[in-house]
Amino acid sequence: MDWRPKYPLLVGTLVALIALSAGLAHAQEATRRAAVATRLLPRGTVLTADDIVYRDTTLRGPIDTNTVAAGWVTRRLIGAGEVLRMPAVERPAIVSANESVDVEWADRNVMLTVRGVATRNAALGERVSVRTDLGHRVDATVIARGRVRID
Fold first, then answer.
1. Is the pLDDT of residue 63 over 80?
2. Per-domain boundaries in the chain
3. DSSP output for the chain
4. pTM, full prediction
5. What is the CATH number of domain 93-149?
């Protein structure tokens, strides 16, 4: 009886695909220090230092480069021992929807500041749409509480 495969090219291709997929699955796992919940955290909890412990953990999928810290807010129920990462937790909003903000624009020696109203909540460094008192809608970056800058 002949034990050679009838379709050697097909068998070789299947073996190569299996090896490649195993390599890709392993490449998406990484061991790194991550923030982990120390207790059950209800939605809307403002994290404190007692809520977070940093452990070496194997993470699967895309690596979250954000560093969770005290002051961040939970967006859903988080179990004890669960890794804290976006979108389950987010930076605290320092600009609120319908809040009056100063809209700044600068170009070399000229600086212009107008008043506006933020259209949604936003954290430091996030983009937010603002309706100015002049009637224009602009996208700006949050730079401080109550202040945004047009880039």
1. no
2. 29-90, 93-149
3. ---S-S-HHHHHHHHHHHHHHHHHHHHTEEEEEEEEESS-B-TTPBP-GGGEEEEEEEEESSPP-----TT-EESS-B-TT-B--TTTEEPPEEE-TT-EEEEEEEETTEEEEEEEEESS-EETT-EEEEEETTS-EEEEEEEETTEEE--
4. 0.59
5. 2.30.30.760
